[in-house]
Amino acid sequence: MSRNESTARLSDALYELSLAQEVPDAALLDEFVRRYPEHADDLTDFAIMLAIDSLREVSQGDVPRTTLAEDKLSPAVSRAMSRFYNRLHAVQSSENISVERGVPTSEIPPNPFATLDRAAFRGMVQRLNVNTVFAIKLRDRHIVPETIPKRFTDQLAQELKVPPGVLMEHLNVQGQSQMQGQFYKAADKPQLDIKQTFCEAVKSSGLNDEQQRLLLAM
Amino acid sequence: MAKPLTKRNKDGKLYARRASVEAAIELAQTQDLNTLRSRLWITDRDAAEYLETEVLAHLMRDARRGMNAQLMEALFPALLKRCESNLLAFVPNDGLATAGDVREEILGRFGEMFAEDGLGDNPDKLDYFECSFNRAFKALRVDAVRKEISRLQHLQQLPDERDERSETDDEVLSRISKAYRTAGTQEVKELGQRLLRGICALPSEERRAVVLCHLLGYEVESEDPSRVTAETLCSVTGRTIRARLKRAAAKLAKFEQEV
Known about the structure:
Largest sheet of chain B: none
Number of helices of chain B: 12
Number of helices of chain A: 10
Structural class of chain B: mainly alpha
Helix content of chain B: 55-70%
Order of helices and strands of chain A: HHHHHHHHHH
Distance between the termini of chain A: 41 Å
Shape of chain A: elongated
Number of domains of chain A: 2
Shape of chain B: elongated
Oligomer: heterodimer
Radius of gyration of chain A: 23 Å
Strand content of chain A: under 5%
Number of strands of chain B: 0
Strand content of chain B: under 5%
Distance between the termini of chain B: 53 Å
Structural class of chain A: mainly alpha
């Protein structure tokens, strides 16, 4: 059994255990351990936590009802939406690649930043309320695309005047790009093999506190 | 008619949606986007227009399969918002140092599951959420929390515990045991409120002993070597289990007095 198959089998076992009874007991756990002996430890740990969670459930009663209106989504919900769309894009891209096998690999998606000259790049930086360092990290794919909030990629796509899908294709291309010449002042160009999460990039690009706060709230 | 579920339960039978969920899906599928939008944010579960979370999960999967962007944009925030409320209640800040991160990871992972629906090694995993959303989401939540607790314990190893001799468990453990088996009573609610934090605050080995013996109902040990007991599950002697139970009982009794 491959590692992925084993993980999927464990995942099924955990869901089945949770769905089988309102609260787990020794008989149910024994039954699952017999069916999935290779996951006995995980199942036992899970059943223990499930029992504690059940105690919390009965002590709390119903989950408090949400009262927030649609236009007041929390940053956590917004970021989960972003992860959904980013993953969806990645899944669709890989599906397309599978379907289109045989297409020359030199067909790299267009780089939407390539059309910007220095002044246009600076204008974009200002309007996005970021700084040049952060914008270069984006342009050169130094940021893990799945971690970039959808609200931000939508704004960026609008600035670049391309559909969000085209921007995501560029950001998802394996390996980092480097535009030659004019944007680098330092003697050393950025490292090619290190990618940061959106959060790490926000915190490590010299953005001021307010800029960081706004970006991380997206 | 809603697409049938394909996952099977432990007895090999196909999971099925509740009849009320099937009926609500059928009705929702005939309604236009504006009507659906107006129903999505109704939170009163007794209201006729309220959409059960299983229905939201089905509609979202359906929208994802058909790549209906408008419907996904409308449905998913409402579904995620309900999940967030659940997480705030069951992964509270006072129970885990990194609770905020864990809640966010669960919510994000849940979002990604819809993107991956129908693909990979477990293509119909979301079937569980259409069958019983709360129990399926509980599995996702509990699994994430247990992994985080395990990760934090690796970072901060607890010192070895001493063995102590004890013949009896304290009365507080018996009450926990009784309350767990009579769920839904006022006694359980009060007990849970008083002692849940205490149980969660116990060192992991003591908590494990309490849950195995007093919630799940395992014997401490057995003469029969084929029997699964707390002793065999924890790979220690019965004497060690009893010592852990004694220490836990003392801490819980003290905690109860202080609350």
